Amino acid sequence: xxxxxxxxxxxxxxxxxxxxxxxxxxxxxxxxxxxxxxxxxxxxxxxxxxxxxxxxxxxxxxxxxxxxxxxxxxxxxxxxxxxxxxxxxxxxxxxxxxxxxxxxxxxxxxxxxxxxxxxxxxxxxxxxxxxxxxxxxxxxxxxxxxxxxxxxxxxxxxxxxxxxxxxxxxxxxxxxxxxxxxxxxxxxxxxxxxxxxxxxxxxxxxxxxxxxxxxxxxxxxxxxxxxxxxxxxxxxxxxxxxxxxxxxxxxxxxxxxxxxxxxxxxxxxx
Length: 270
Hints:
Elements: E1 8-11, E2 23-25, E3 30-31, E4 36-41, E5 48-49, E6 58-62, E7 67-69, E8 85-93, E9 99-105, E10 113-120, E11 123-128, E12 135-138, E13 145-152, E14 157-162, E15 173-176, E16 186-190, E17 196-203, H1 224-234, H2 257-268
Parallel strand pairs: 4-5
Antiparallel strand pairs: 1-2, 3-7, 4-6, 6-17, 7-16, 8-13, 8-17, 9-10, 9-16, 10-11, 11-12, 13-14, 14-15
């Protein structure tokens, strides 16, 4: 069975250009009791001003040890029983923040993690609960990074892809967990204050893969229409709805001229 969960835009942009009202929602996520997370998007009245990678919304941690739990809207049980695997893909923008960025449990009430993904010192580390040694993948810079993790109950194998495509490439690192859970229901996102997340998606059987940087229209290719979409955002006419942060810098709430140049170079084959 396939289950997909993404941050969703609560209200669409209204006709009238970039100044129209929008709102982002964390309705599919439950806050940790000791902290909160913020939903935001492009700079606009009533919307928090921080970077986003896909679409018009993103999520930012706020607090000493923040986390939000993907339980489904108001649900104490978020997924079907008897799941044998979990595949999750997300993007994170660390900035100066470090800490746990993804943790998965056997069910919603479990307190011992099957494995935890953390970021510190330029490394993404997957730490299993028993069994294999931590799996470490080095990443460069404090820009947007993609992480995809695949866990299988049979043998507890854990594979991780960081900034690589799980559909086409071998795993960057692997380990095992001694856990023998019957259900995989909860995904936890967290980290130190200021870390930003976007484009979370979970499945049970098939790889998710990376999104296409510079694909401002969201059709999985980069062409002249993406150039137009990013130009319109740079000029303040309208927001691009796909993945307009072509250089994956995450330095601006909106895309900028460097993303425009990036897309132009892709189209020209430079």
